[in-house]
């Protein structure tokens, strides 16, 4: 493809300001592209004509503040809720206010309040007066009040704050009815420029608040959860005194709570299990999975409290309960929800950092942003939050992280590149972000994020689905969003996330990323509206998919009574443990086109690829037809040539996505000993045997000698619960495939026969791409190319990363002599 070689981008150091600006210049997205715009709309309609303009000049921004007027009748909870909104005030450290952190909630559930606009900074028109009787009163002209709609969640929060006024003043004497900052009311939501500006200073707003109150509602799960949390801290403090560090309790201290008998919390007497069940329901509150509130709670964590009408619970208490709950999960896997990892790790580290700083400097509080901020790489922050957290507007999945990112601090040049801009479409924001990650990191790890995203729907899929059967939200229409660009929603099939975290994988990382500029190619002229759709990367083709088992592995928790697990276990302790908890995770196989579950697990999959008597396999290729599994893999004269035990070892390694085992028992070794493999780790061997025996208790399917080893591990050794095979098998949610040269692998369910496997320079992993020419319907009539129609032969859809057994390290290139091969250019669209 010499005539199609592209011009490389100008060399520059990743992370430079110039390079970041170039990244943004190459991915301008036409405004008329529809990319799920419906989910980005604010659906609360209000009259913002009385809002006076805020300053949006960088460094001179100001804010509005809100007062909730007291009730006239304290016994009437349904009394009209009247709030007073200030004119813009200069944002300085002298302002005293409470910042409210909450979830907007269901946009369809709206309530009405009365809103009055007022100038607080004028001395002759003060909002607070002190009558002679000493009772505080509020004097403000309410004749100008207007009806304003808010979500039910905010309405209930404001009512609670109004009702708890006296209690808050008693707990926090400095707060003599001080104002609030609430995003839905203090920001003109109809003014995109103002929203962009206020989002850009959000961290500063919460950092400079005197207090931050978290509102999670006041349903039974919240109130009981806080009751247990306060009781837990009290019990630990009474038991260990000064040895109990609320920010860093030891596992031994928490373990004593979990191993003790019952506890009296008010009217309840609960054992550790009952307490943890209450905490599980508390942690399942939707608040903990909203991306903006993670920033809001971490800006000022030492002065952040969970608010309910009668109490305010310090955020640090929540982290003690989170540690206790996580320890419980480690000891006794229950599968119940817990806090996303970012909550425990980020907030605990933040609080420890602040405490160390205060002890060192003898200060009670510091507003130094660089001292009290936890900064990280933007890509890493996004990777750890985008599947665990939700946002009403998908663009906020990125915008909420900018203040945490090292690259967006002063002098790095990226703040302007990635600054919040709600005029940009979701596709434009995340296409730019994907390309930005490649340029600033110098690697292709960001492409691994597509492993956890929604499945791609290609033009040919729409022809099959039909106009009356549109894809669900867990699918992504590549006609409007490039297949290589991150899409910031969950619901992906690759439930275990990217494989790029595996330190032993480094397929092409020793070769620098080769990113080419197709728009400046001397021979090819792309239509302007297509330039944003294509990214050109250098690499090599290393395989081709022959067949795919469209049967993703899934992990389920079931009750295993009357199964082989009722047999005698290896130790008395294990026997007792298995009697008390009969629910165990098991592996099953499901077909992507069937809604029902197909039981069988990994033994069924193994029988299909290794036994001639297994059901026939339908091969989706040009010739069609069926092949029996014995002819398909392990056939005489093939790569394994009937070596069942070696094939079984590779099969299990592939399911585990494990590093390659090398040594004398390689495929070419003629020794008759049992090959090395996952069962060389005794804990892993037990876990594999346990999972295998659930569906094949007599171990009829694996090779005889290995079957004996697995049975021995199962019934002669204890089973450590944290080592259960389903929890370690990162192949969950992926599909099994075999290449034309009989190598095994795991891929996304989108992959099919004929797709090719490539190693892109700068990537740790191989990727699967699909030649666009293979599609039954090629993108539409508007795709035309001037200068070279052959470009269509080098256009590919990005189908995601994959695991290819024994080809995941850089040594593969050296061993196969592939480093000397001429680089190919893959144009991904």
From TrEMBL:
<feature type="region of interest" description="Disordered">
    <location>
        <begin position="1"/>
        <end position="30"/>
    </location>
</feature>
<dbReference type="Pfam" id="PF06985">
    <property type="entry name" value="HET"/>
</dbReference>
<protein>
    <recommendedName>
        <fullName>Heterokaryon incompatibility domain-containing protein</fullName>
    </recommendedName>
</protein>
<feature type="domain" description="Heterokaryon incompatibility">
    <location>
        <begin position="97"/>
        <end position="296"/>
    </location>
</feature>
<dbReference type="InterPro" id="IPR010730">
    <property type="entry name" value="HET"/>
</dbReference>
<dbReference type="InterPro" id="IPR052895">
    <property type="entry name" value="HetReg/Transcr_Mod"/>
</dbReference>
């Amino acid at each position: 493809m010499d005539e199609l070689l592209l011009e490389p981008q100008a060399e520059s150091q990743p992370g430079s300001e110039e390079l970041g600006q170039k990244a943004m210049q190459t991915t301008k997205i036409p405004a008329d592209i529809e990319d799920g715009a419906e989910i980005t709309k604010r659906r609360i309609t209000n009259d913002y004509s009385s809002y006076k303009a805020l300053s949006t000049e960088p460094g001179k921004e100001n804010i509005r503040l809100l007062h909730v007027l007291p009730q006239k009748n304290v016994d009437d909870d349904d009394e009209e809720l009247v709030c007073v909104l200030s004119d813009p005030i200069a944002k300085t450290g002298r302002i005293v206010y409470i910042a409210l952190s909450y979830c907007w909630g269901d946009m369809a559930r709206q309530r009405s309040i009365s809103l009055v606009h007022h100038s607080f900074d004028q001395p002759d028109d003060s909002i607070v007066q002190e009558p002679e009787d000493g009772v505080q009163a509020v004097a403000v002209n309410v004749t100008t009040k207007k009806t304003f709609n808010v979500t039910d969640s905010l309405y209930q929060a404001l009512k609670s704050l109004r009702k708890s006024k006296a209690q808050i003043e008693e707990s926090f004497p400095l707060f003599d009815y001080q104002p609030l900052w609430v995003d839905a009311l203090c920001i003109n939501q109809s003014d995109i420029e103002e929203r962009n500006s206020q989002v850009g200073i959000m961290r500063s707003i919460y950092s400079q608040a005197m207090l931050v109150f978290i509102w999670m509602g006041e349903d039974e799960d919240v109130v009981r959860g806080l009751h247990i949390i306060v009781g837990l801290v009290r019990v630990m403090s009474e038991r260990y005194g000064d040895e109990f560090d609320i920010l860093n309790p030891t596992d031994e201290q928490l373990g004593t709570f979990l191993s003790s008998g019952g506890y009296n919390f008010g009217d309840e007497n609960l054992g550790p299990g009952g307490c943890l069940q209450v905490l599980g329901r508390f942690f399942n509150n939707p608040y903990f999975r909203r991306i903006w509130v993670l920033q809001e709670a971490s800006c000022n964590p030492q002065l952040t409290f969970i608010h309910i009408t009668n109490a305010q619970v310090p955020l640090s208490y929540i982290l003690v309960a989170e540690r206790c709950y996580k320890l419980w999960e480690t000891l006794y896997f229950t599968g119940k929800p817990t806090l996303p990892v970012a909550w425990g790790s980020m907030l605990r580290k933040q609080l420890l950092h602040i405490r160390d700083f205060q002890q060192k400097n003898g200060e009670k509080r510091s507003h130094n942003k660089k001292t009290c901020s936890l900064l990280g790489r933007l890509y890493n922050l996004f990777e750890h939050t985008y599947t665990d957290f939700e946002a009403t507007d998908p663009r906020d999945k990125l915008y909420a992280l900018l203040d945490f990112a090292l690259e967006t601090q002063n002098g790095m040049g990226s703040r302007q590149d990635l600054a919040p801009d709600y005029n940009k479409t979701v596709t434009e924001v995340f296409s730019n972000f994907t390309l930005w990650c490649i340029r600033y990191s110098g690697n292709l790890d960001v492409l691994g994020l597509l492993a956890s995203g929604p499945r791609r729907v290609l033009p040919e899929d729409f022809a099959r689905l039909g106009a009356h059967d549109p894809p669900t939200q867990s699918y992504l229409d590549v006609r409007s969003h490039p297949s290589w660009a991150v899409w910031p929603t969950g619901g992906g099939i690759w439930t275990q996330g990217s494989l790029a975290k595996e330190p032993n994988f480094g397929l092409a990382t020793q070769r620098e990323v080769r990113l080419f500029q197709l728009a400046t190619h001397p021979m090819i002229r792309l239509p302007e509206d297509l330039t944003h759709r294509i990214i050109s990367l250098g690499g090599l083709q290393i395989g081709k998919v022959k067949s795919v088992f469209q049967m993703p592995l899934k992990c389920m928790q079931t009750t295993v009574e009357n199964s082989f697990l009722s047999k005698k276990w290896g130790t008395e302790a294990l026997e007792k443990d298995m009697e008390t908890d009969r629910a165990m995770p098991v592996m099953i196989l499901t077909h992507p086109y069937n809604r029902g579950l197909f039981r069988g697990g990994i033994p069924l999959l193994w029988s299909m690829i290794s036994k001639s008597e297994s059901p026939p396999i339908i091969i989706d290729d040009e010739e069609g037809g069926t092949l029996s599994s014995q002819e398909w893999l392990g056939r005489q004269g093939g790569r394994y040539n009937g070596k069942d035990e070696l094939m079984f070892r590779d099969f299990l390694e592939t399911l585990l996505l494990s590093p390659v085992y090398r040594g004398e028992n390689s495929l070419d070794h003629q020794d008759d000993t049992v090959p090395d493999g996952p069962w060389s780790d005794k804990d892993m061997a037990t876990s594999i045997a346990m999972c295998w025996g659930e569906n094949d208790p007599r171990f009829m399917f694996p090779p005889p000698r290995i079957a004996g080893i697995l049975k021995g591990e199962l019934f002669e050794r204890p089973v450590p619960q944290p080592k259960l095979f389903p929890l370690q098998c990162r192949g969950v949610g992926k599909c099994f495939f075999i290449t034309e040269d009989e190598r095994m692998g795991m891929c996304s369910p989108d992959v099919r026969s004929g797709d090719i496997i490539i190693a892109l320079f700068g990537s740790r992993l191989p990727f699967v791409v699909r030649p666009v020419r293979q599609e039954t319907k090629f993108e539409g009539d508007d795709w035309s190319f001037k200068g070279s129609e052959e470009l269509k032969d080098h256009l590919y859809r990005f189908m995601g990363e994959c695991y290819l057994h024994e080809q995941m390290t850089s040594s593969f290139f050296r061993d196969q002599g592939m480093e000397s091969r001429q680089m190919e250019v893959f144009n991904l669209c």
